[in-house]
């Protein structure tokens, strides 16, 4: 099944406890979507999905994991021109953890 019609970077954050803070650094305005595994699957299938985040106009931004579980972060350019470079690191639970884009 084809995914979204726009390019995106996907970070598989794995299992994280509630209250963990992640910091996302961006090189340009982009959409940032923090989703649980179910909503990430819906995102990939271009179905209606829920997420934490939105349009990030400044960098870095910080998001907090609302509940324990398997989390995914997507950085995309839907509605924006150009490409944004991104990086993600955990700053709440394990400050040394850095995530690589999975896609």
Automatic annotation (TrEMBL):
What's the protein name? DUF1883 domain-containing protein
Tree of life domain: Bacteria
Query: Where in the numbering of this chain does the DUF1883 domain appear?
Result: 6-91
């Amino acid at each position: 099944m084809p995914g979204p019609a726009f390019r995106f970077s996907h970070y598989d954050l794995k299992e994280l406890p509630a209250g963990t803070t992640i910091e996302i650094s961006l090189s340009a305005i982009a959409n940032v979507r923090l989703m649980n595994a179910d909503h990430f699957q819906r995102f990939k299938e271009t179905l209606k999905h829920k997420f934490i985040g939105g349009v990030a106009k400044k960098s870095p931004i910080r998001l907090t994991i609302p509940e324990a579980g398997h989390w995914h972060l997507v950085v995309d350019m839907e509605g924006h021109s150009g490409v944004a470079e991104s990086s993600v690191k955990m700053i709440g639970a394990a400050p040394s953890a850095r995530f690589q884009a999975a896609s």
